[in-house]
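Fig. S4 source data, part A: sequence.
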Amino acid sequence: MRWKPNVTVAGIAERGGRFLLIEENTADGLRLNQPAGHLEDGETLLQAVEREVLEETTCRFTPQALVGVYQWRQAEGERTFMRFSFAGSVGDPDVSLRLDVGIERTVWMTRDEVAAATGRFRSPWVLINIDDYLAGRRMPLDLIRTL
């Protein structure tokens, strides 16, 4: 069997000290996450994060910087994830769209509110991504080259 990591993207959007998160239904119950999901065949990383944020929040996302690349191997499984997290801005929700299946709602939370909800994270990256963003970690988008 050939090993392959799961490539995912996430959008980090901040307004007035609050961060855009989603609440989604999972096998482990209702969990918090940044709008995020898997890279699909034929997409660039930037196209994937724009699509995922739109599907999960109904807001258009404009990536402005790469915050980081994160690797995580699930302790209870044999899956490894590579997450590319992007900082950017979002527009207002598009009322003509519906949230993706499984997404209950979007929420705007402060860093402290997110930290207080640690037990409800979909992945260990939720607070790490916010802290990296707040620490000023930003890499230019042209660092990512698609051939």
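Fig. S4 source data, part B ends here. The chain has a mean pLDDT of 95.
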